[in-house]
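thread: overnight batch results

M.L. [08:02]
morning all. the overnight job finished for the chain we discussed friday. pasting input first so we're all looking at the same thing
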Amino acid sequence: MKTQDETTERRGRSPRILLYTRAVIAATAAVQLLLVGAASAVEAEQEAEMSDPPAATSGDELGRETPRGAVRGYLDACRDGDYEKAAQFLDLDQIEGDGPTLARQLRIVLSRTLWIDVEELSADPEGRFDDRLPAYRERVGTIETRKGKTEVLLQRAEREDGVYIWRFAGVTIAKIPDLWGEFGYGWLERLLPEFFIEFELLSVALWQWIALLVLVLLVAIASWLVTVALVWLLRPLVRRTETPIDDLLIERGAGPIRLILAVAIFRAALLPLGLEVEIVEFAAGVLGVVFVLAVAWLLIRAIDILAERIEQRLVERGQDSATAAVPPGRKAVKAIIAALAFVAILDKFGVSVTALVAGLGVGGIAVALAAQKTIENLFGGVTLYGDRPVRVGDFCKFGDKIGTVEEIGIRSTRVRTLDRTVVTIPNAEFSNLQLENFAQRDRMRLFATIGVRYETTPDQLRYILVQVRKLLYAHERVTAEPARIRFVGFGAYSLDLELFAYVDTEDWNEFLGIREDIFLRIMDIVESSGTGFAFPSQTLYLGKDDAPAPERAEAVAEEVARWRERDEVFLPSFPAEQIAALENTIRFPAEGSPDHRKAP
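M.L. [08:03]
and the structure it wrote out:
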């Protein structure tokens, strides 16, 4: 038929599932044998025999009329330990030797070297015609030996009564001694008592069970020693690096690394035990699953270490709000690793993962379409964490609302407004809004339009402009540049002066206090100039309007005249030395306040 590797490749994955199922059923039967007793085991065996289709016995009492029947009958006889019966499936006409011994040796050689799928053998009495063999020959498989390939063949011959039967060919039987010398028990058969070799449980000899237990103990010790040696060798190297990630990986990755080494050592040490092909394949599948789980365990440990390091770096940079995005990201990566490990385990059990991945892809598209808004909000949250236009605790304006950010979640952001209500905005919508972050201001703007009465004389106006500028330059909480006040126009009922300056504070409440102080001082300046503030009014009243105080106006005119004589009418701008001389000469808060400090 084919070699073991060729057979495995041609059959695909489905026979492996059948193998695992049979192994599980056999294990269950063994437990029942130990707990219930020999009677239950015999009953289970009878049920198993009844489940197999009966061999055709119309022409041959052993069912050797077809290649499938011949091989099945031989294997059943060997499984029952009836090698006298099994010898009847061998063509011993031209062979010298003990038939039962040859039958036993052939069974052991086949179990160690060849995986025979009886269902793939021909059920036609004539056999196959597409195997390029003579019509009387049928190939069961090919064994790889040190000397080359040895084919296991069946041969069809006519009995004395005219019935044609299939038996293992004499050319194959003649090679059994050589095969036994290479794949047999060898010195173990001479050393161990026959009971240790002949007694089998789940197709595994007693000496092999003992060897497996010893091997598990030795592998555990060896993997622990190798892991300790690796850690001892790598620790001085990782200490030389600046990043602590490799140190943590060596410390926390010892467990999964030890498990990976144990799997590798056990897989290599399993070959000399000479277990049956089915057992070796089953053990390889189980070891493959353990290896996948160990690798996933190691990757998850690495993800935890990396996430902790990222959180630590964010805290060191003062980006505490961004740390909220680390746990969801860590869980998402772990979920991806778990999904990949699950797919790999299914592949080890022989499940076709191509159709599964395609189905998951289609299902993923459907889920993505159904959860479009949720995914959009998720990416909106990632954008907020990445760009950080606002942080938790920032006072900001979003849309037509103002409030303090209390929480930036995965799906939505919560803001407490000035009305003390909490507004929840989806992240996708919030990230697309025009956000004005008041908490990021380094200083606050002071802006006002001051209107004085039309009766104000030009000199009074000059007096107000100069005095207010002196106020702005002298105030310790107002930045001198670009502080200004300008006469900007003639309003409907006032002469308009535009005040512009920056207050050196980031706190809104403090800004209100400073602005209040400046406005009060401006009121003092306007009052001392002899004029007044204009106000819109449509009240019609009859009476003589009080003119501005003439004595104050005269005093202001004299003051401005003295300025002219000394060239101190600093309009349209103040000289730099005057600004430097005036800077920080007015203390805040004003005199009379408990916090007032005398100017030096």
